[in-house]
Structure formats: structure tokens, C-alpha cells
Backbone:
């Protein structure tokens, strides 16, 4: 074996080692919470702030438009709340209008209601705060046996926003469940208006993803809320919601 071959054999392991991908390991990590408020103003790019100011003012004018009046403060909580009842009823009506036939049920996840609507003026901006996402209305057709499983999940988590359903929650179990006054028929197909997010089985509502049929309306939930409030205002009505016992906790 000549010198050139010996040199190649000696260098080869070094070349292979240098070409091997390096495995990096995180040995330490830390984070700092930075509040986004007036304390961070000193960090702002002054030129950028100046550039954005006219846009901010234009947006502020649009967001501050009053579109209705809330008769009382509406918040979302389990098992039943003014805000969840209002949202679920509005979505169910929107689904009915879209199909031009009655939708059986509407479902709203309480976690998706991101703010409280205080008593008094309701602005466009407040509805953007309530529904900051680009979620759209979806209509599903779900078999009764899956719906029965779903309401049991609602009972385990203490309740979700519903319309068209009445139920009691007793020791984390759903009792006396009815849909429009009738017990759930496990062989019947029910129409459900909900968000595209929940229609994907998210927030652990896996049964919604097991639908028989799905119809995407392409209508944003935020726009549905805005339209409903404007319509009620045009009729001279305040936004007034009542608790009707659609979801109760019993002993």
C-alpha cells in the first residue's frame, strides 16, 4: 500500500466525522414576560409610530361606532350564561336563515368568548374583542348517538354554550336531555350550527368531527354577531338576554 492510500485511510474518518450532523441539546432556557402597555412606549420606533398614527386613528373611528345597547352585562360561564345563550341563539338563527329551514342545535365553546360585554353601548370594537378570530359558521348533521356522547362531555366539563338543547348536570353526568323538547333519538340525524373550529373536533368535542354531512357557510361568526345586534337596534330593541334553564346543575 503506497503512501497516498495510507493518507486517504487516515483522513477518511476525520472527513466523515466533520460531515455528520451535529446533535444540539438545550441545556438551559429562560423567558421574561414583557407587558405590552405604556411602559414599553420608550422602546417604540418613533418613525414607525408616526407612520401608523393616521391608520390607528382611522381604525379607532370604525371600532368606536356604537351598534347597540346591552340591557345588562353579559359574560360567559358554565353551565349557562347570558353571553353564551346570546351567542348560541344568534348562531342557530343564522344557520336557520342560511338553510332556510330550522337548525336543531347550536354549540358555542365558552373558551371562544374572549371578553365580557358590559351593560350600555356596544361598539364594533367590543365585538372584535369578543370574537377576535376569523372563525366561520359551519352546519353539521350529526347522528343522535354521537350527540348523546357529546352532551355527556358537556356535563363532565360543567357545560358549554348551547341552543336547542335543555339538560341537567348531576354529578358530572347529563340527565333529562332534550332537543327542542324531545329526548335524543340515537338514530335521528340532527342539524347543528357551530364554528369551523369546533367542527374539526377541537376543544375535545371529537364527536362533532364524526358528522354525517358538513356545510361550510363562509360567513364569519363576528359578522353574524354584528349583523344581529344592528338588526335589533334598527327595531328599537336593546340586546336583552335571559337565563332560561337550558343548562342547570342539580343535586
Residues:
Amino acid at each position: 500500500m503506497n503512501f497516498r492510500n495510507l493518507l486517504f485511510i487516515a483522513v477518511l474518518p476525520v472527513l466523515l466525522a466533520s460531515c455528520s450532523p451535529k446533535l444540539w441539546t438545550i441545556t438551559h432556557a429562560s423567558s421574561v414576560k414583557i407587558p405590552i402597555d405604556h411602559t414599553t412606549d420608550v422602546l417604540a420606533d418613533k418613525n414607525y409610530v408616526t407612520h401608523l398614527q393616521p391608520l390607528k386613528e382611522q381604525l379607532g373611528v370604525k371600532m368606536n361606532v356604537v351598534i347597540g345597547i346591552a340591557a345588562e352585562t353579559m359574560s360567559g360561564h358554565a353551565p349557562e350564561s347570558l353571553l353564551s345563550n346570546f351567542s348560541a341563539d344568534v348562531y342557530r338563527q343564522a344557520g336557520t336563515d342560511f338553510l332556510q329551514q330550522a337548525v336543531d342545535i347550536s354549540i358555542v365553546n365558552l373558551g371562544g368568548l374572549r371578553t365580557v360585554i358590559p351593560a350600555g353601548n356596544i361598539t364594533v370594537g367590543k365585538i372584535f374583542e369578543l370574537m377576535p378570530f376569523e372563525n366561520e359558521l359551519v352546519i353539521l348533521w350529526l347522528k343522535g348517538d354521537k350527540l348523546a356522547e357529546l352532551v355527556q362531555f358537556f356535563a363532565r366539563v360543567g357545560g358549554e354554550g348551547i341552543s336547542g338543547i335543555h339538560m341537567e348536570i348531576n354529578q358530572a353526568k347529563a340527565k333529562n336531555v332534550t332537543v327542542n323538547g324531545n329526548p335524543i333519538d340515537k338514530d335521528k340525524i340532527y342539524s347543528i350550527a357551530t364554528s369551523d373550529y369546533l367542527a374539526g373536533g377541537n376543544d375535545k368535542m371529537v364527536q362533532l368531527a364524526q358528522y354525517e354531512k358538513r356545510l361550510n357557510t363562509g360567513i364569519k361568526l363576528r359578522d353574524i354577531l354584528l349583523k344581529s345586534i344592528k338588526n335589533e337596534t334598527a327595531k328599537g330593541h336593546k340586546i336583552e338576554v335571559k337565563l332560561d334553564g337550558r343548562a342547570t346543575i342539580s343535586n
